[in-house]
Amino acid sequence: MSSNETLKQIIEAALLAAGRPLSLDQLQALFEKEDEPEKKSLREILAELTEDYLGRGIEIREVGNGFRIQVRSEFSPWVSKLWDERPPKYSRALLETLALIAYRQPITRGEIEDIRGVSVSTNIVKTLTEREWVRVVGHRDVPGKPALYATTKEFLDYFNLKGLSELPTLAEIRDLDSINRELELKDPDKLDEEPTESEQTPDEVMDAQPVVETDQLEENEIPEDESGQKSEHSTVSETQDTSVDAEKDELEADQIDQAETGRLYE
């Protein structure tokens, strides 16, 4: 049996040369039957390598198909420039379908369509199966025997997951709009729009008041009809004012006559 340090170097070299995840069974197969290490020893070696890689640009990660050496995600912006081709972009419909399969598996195509409210394109299912992210695991025991879809270990490898238990919980998946409302963030696409009444300042609200209509004029203002003449109400008011002035003049005239009459009898 090789020494512990030699075993460690063999495991490290195998993971680096493979370029893909290796399971414990595959690592054991590297050795002759009499020199085959126990799985417990392999896990201890892998734990030591994990500690050795702390603070470095690479790490050992356990995913669906086993263990692999990979570049740390924080260095991907630089390392990705080594390849000319760009990573494929997937539609929202494809990602929604994949998410439903991951969280509700096993699930039929019809059930996916019922949840999404739209039909699932055949190209989406074909893409997911060709990428080996999804596979048929059985058929629902209902008329038509629809296929049941579930995710694969390749799905776990691609998304850097050890198992489905590492998927974020549905409670952690928050709607972006609800987050914006909680943080009172404005949609950048709507910044040019006029603010709502609740968002306007008091000065803006005053400026936005409508023009005062005829029936909202102050009492001392006399409205006019469409012909430019004063209304009937104003004419009645003027007649009343004229009558009061006339009575006042007559009273003053009587007082003057009485005064003159008194002087005549003195």
From TrEMBL:
<feature type="region of interest" description="Disordered">
    <location>
        <begin position="184"/>
        <end position="266"/>
    </location>
</feature>
<feature type="compositionally biased region" description="Acidic residues">
    <location>
        <begin position="247"/>
        <end position="257"/>
    </location>
</feature>
<feature type="compositionally biased region" description="Acidic residues">
    <location>
        <begin position="190"/>
        <end position="206"/>
    </location>
</feature>
<keyword id="KW-0132">Cell division</keyword>
<dbReference type="Pfam" id="PF04079">
    <property type="entry name" value="SMC_ScpB"/>
</dbReference>
<protein>
    <submittedName>
        <fullName>SMC-Scp complex subunit ScpB</fullName>
    </submittedName>
</protein>
<feature type="compositionally biased region" description="Acidic residues">
    <location>
        <begin position="215"/>
        <end position="226"/>
    </location>
</feature>
<dbReference type="InterPro" id="IPR036390">
    <property type="entry name" value="WH_DNA-bd_sf"/>
</dbReference>
<keyword id="KW-0963">Cytoplasm</keyword>
<keyword id="KW-0159">Chromosome partition</keyword>
<dbReference type="InterPro" id="IPR036388">
    <property type="entry name" value="WH-like_DNA-bd_sf"/>
</dbReference>
<dbReference type="InterPro" id="IPR005234">
    <property type="entry name" value="ScpB_csome_segregation"/>
</dbReference>
<keyword id="KW-0131">Cell cycle</keyword>
<dbReference type="GO" id="GO:0051304">
    <property type="term" value="P:chromosome separation"/>
</dbReference>
<dbReference type="GO" id="GO:0051301">
    <property type="term" value="P:cell division"/>
</dbReference>
